[in-house]
Specification:
Helix content is 41%, strand content 20%. The chain is built from 18 helices and 18 strands.
Length: 481
């Protein structure tokens, strides 16, 4: 399938609406003859056409004078055309954005009633009632949390780009500890220096740290001594007693043991993630995991023994070779452990993942039916507390974090709803500087790969000075302009 958009300076909206129906379609300048394709054109009037299986269908509409409105109107025309031609109604309608819950927050802030927001989602965006109710319930839960945010709040993200092995669906920067283990020590040295620099920068700007999140990769791919060094540096730099939350991903049981779990607890982690993705040994092997479901159960038991009382577990719907029954069994197993959070992701086909590069598997099962099994979470007392979507997600579905009452993952809410700055340390880190209200967002990027990060460390420190400039410009009342 091909997509061709003409007559607009920006093709983003019509292109991405077309991808709701044809995820792997190519954007082309001209449609090849006799091949299936979608053509969207903004001339004196808007036109959208599709050739599908030799059959052509065309719709027309008036063109708005405003360029942006024309782009949105053309996207809507493409959506109606493809819904008719394919018989498919995407569950989130024509919404293509990452943050549907943010739309509710923003519209409420602008004075819209909940009834008007409901009409926007269901009538304008063609979102299903079920998806709107999910988004609204999350917005309602988050409301009091977001209302307490202050202009100089921030969170700290620390990245460990190493793993025991690479999962087939993964697109993150993550090096094998077996092949690239020699980089771990110099990487950790530089990382600790960057954390100290962030501390200095935050103090200069008068910022107030709310949450810390150590992610990856797999942070527990570090040795126990490496974790002590990293988390010891964090404890020296910041007052952990004032934090709302301190999360460390301990996601892989093939590199997480009782000693490391004890270190995480000793050095202040208040929340950890142990991520099975699935409890099927066959599916684990198929996605490149070097551990069994029994190893996950062992790791969870050791975490509880170490005193961890706020544990998240990730599951993925749509893993190659999984089934609705298999996913439901994994969900029941997770529920039997009674973790404080269960995050259900829908498999996303990322261009940098081995699944896409190798064209390995296409047996992803009925993902929508898998997500319907998540009703068991609500029946067991969990509630959805954050949600996001990604390009390339199977069947245009979503990722949802569920929690026991009072066990929301604050960092996840803050980064997804963009309510305060996230200062990032480590390779691939993206510092996101947020003006109060989200009116202005600026980003500062670290080098992507560990070797670049180490060799270009001085440049990374220079870039961090942009945080001081941002806060002086937008929050310092003594600074003009």
């Amino acid at each position: 399938m091909n997509i061709c958009v003409r007559g607009l300076s920006s093709v983003y909206e019509p292109e991405n609406v077309a991808r709701l129906f044809f995820a792997n379609a190519r954007l082309v300048r001209r449609l090849p003859r006799k091949e299936d394709g979608v053509l969207a054109r903004a001339g004196r009037r808007l036109a959208a056409g599709v050739r599908l299986g030799g059959r052509c269908t065309v719709l027309y509409a008036p063109r708005p004078a405003d360029e942006k409105q024309a782009e949105l109107a053309l996207a809507g025309l493409v959506y109606e055309l493809l819904k008719q031609a394919t018989g498919v109604r995407p569950p989130w309608g024509m919404l293509t954005g990452v943050r549907p819950v943010r739309i509710i927050h923003d519209r409420r802030a602008a004075g819209l009633s909940d009834e008007a927001i409901h009409r926007l989602f269901v009538d304008t965006y063609d979102c299903t009632e079920a998806k709107f109710r999910l988004a609204k319930s999350i917005a309602d839960l988050q409301r009091h949390i977001l209302a307490a945010r202050k202009p100089r709040d921030y969170s700290l993200y620390i990245g460990i780009p190493f793993c025991p092995s690479r999962c087939s669906y993964c697109s993150f920067v993550s090096l094998s500890t077996q092949r690239e283990g020699r980089l771990m020590e110099p990487y950790l040295e530089a990382l600790c220096r960057e954390i100290e620099a962030i501390r200095d920068r935050a103090e200069d700007c008068g910022l107030d740290l709310k949450t810390i999140y150590i992610g990856g990769g797999t942070p527990t791919s570090l040795s126990a001594d490496g974790l002590r060094k990293l988390m010891g540096t964090v404890a020296e730099c910041f007052d952990l007693s004032r934090l709302e939350e301190y999360t460390v991903e301990a996601g892989r049981p093939d590199c997480t043991d009782a000693e490391k779990l004890a270190v995480l607890k000793e050095y202040g982690a208040s929340r950890i993630s142990i991520n099975p993705q699935t409890f099927s040994d066959a599916v684990l092997e198929r996605i490149g995991r070097k551990h069994s479901a029994a190893d996950i159960l062992r790791c969870f038991e050791e975490a509880r023994a170490a005193g961890h009382d706020n544990i998240n577990m990730d599951l993925i719907a749509g893993l190659p070779g999984d089934t609705v029954e298999g996913f439901a069994k994994s969900l029941r197993t997770a529920l039997s452990l009674s973790p404080e959070n269960i995050t259900v992701h829908t498999l996303t086909l990322k261009r940098a993942s081995n699944l896409v590069i190798d064209h390995a598997d296409s047996d992803y099962g009925d993902v929508a039916a898998m997500l319907e099994e998540c009703g068991a979470l609500a029946d067991t007392g969990y509630q959805p507390y954050y949600l996001y979507r990604q390009k390339g997600t199977l069947q245009n579905l979503e990722n949802t974090g569920w929690c026991k009452p009072g066990k929301e993952g604050y960092y996840n809410i803050y980064i997804m709803e963009e309510v305060h700055s996230i200062l990032s340390a480590g390779a691939g880190g993206s510092t996101k500087l947020v003006q109060p209200g989200g009116a202005k967002i600026e980003r500062i990027f670290n080098y992507k790969y560990p070797a670049e990060y180490i060799s270009g460390f001085d440049t990374i420190l220079q870039r961090k000075e942009g945080a001081s400039e941002f806060y002086a410009r937008y929050l310092d009342p003594q600074t003009a302009g």
